[in-house]
Amino acid sequence: MLDVKPTSLPGVLLLVPRRFGDARGWFTETWNAQRMAEAGLDLAFVQDNHSYSAEAGTLRGLHFQKPPRAQDKLVRCTRGAIFDVAVDARRGSPTYGQWTGAELTAENGHQLLVPKGFLHGFVTLVADTEVQYKCTDVYAPDCDGAVLWNSCGIDWPLPVASPVLSDKDRAAQSFADFVTPFETGQA
Ligand SMILES: Cc1cn([C@H]2C[C@H](O)[C@@H](COP(=O)(O)OP(=O)(O)O[C@H]3O[C@@H](C)C(=O)[C@@H](O)[C@H]3O)O2)c(=O)[nH]c1=O
């Protein structure tokens, strides 16, 4: 029912929910607490987010909320397509500073689980793209932070010469200047 695949970063998981196709179309479970618990993921989500990006090449990230308001995120694309990225920002982690990415599309229904301690961002691969994600803590602007999208060595599959960014993301600190608030093993 739910295929949970590891990625190159321990803790970041690619979830492939089963789709039941019939003459009408298909049905899928996008979140089932019991199945996730069976897969070892006991996550109490408290906020759902939904963003729309008009242009291909819109890049949101790399974002985090620092402790005590850190968030696990379960991300999916419900219209269009994105390349979704997580960067390990946990001080002392063997994979500190490393990134992993996955193509999440409305068509494939894949989901990326980005745990606390990881920066998160995505770029839209086509115009008119919608992304929805669940979070384990509510928005806390005082704990909100950003790291410059192109300062972590991420191989972004940009569909345009330069990405569309928010003012906040354009002015973000570089990963080299970033003093991480995350430790390994931090809940
Ligand atoms: C993230 C967030 C933003 N907002 C408001 C603040 C602001 O006025 C407006 C747009 O916020 P942002 O520019 O931060 O939106 P955006 O750049 O889409 O931020 C999101 O990016 C992705 C990659 C993530 O991982 C998310 O956690 C979040 O940081 O929405 C909320 O009210 N609640 C929220 O949870």
Automatic annotation (TrEMBL):
Annotated pathway: Carbohydrate biosynthesis; dTDP-L-rhamnose biosynthesis
Enzyme class label: isomerase
EC number of the protein: 5.1.3.13
Listed Pfam families: dTDP_sugar_isom
Gene Ontology terms for molecular function: dTDP-4-dehydrorhamnose 3,5-epimerase activity
Reported function: Catalyzes the epimerization of the C3' and C5'positions of dTDP-6-deoxy-D-xylo-4-hexulose, forming dTDP-6-deoxy-L-lyxo-4-hexulose.
Protein name, UniProt field: dTDP-4-dehydrorhamnose 3,5-epimerase
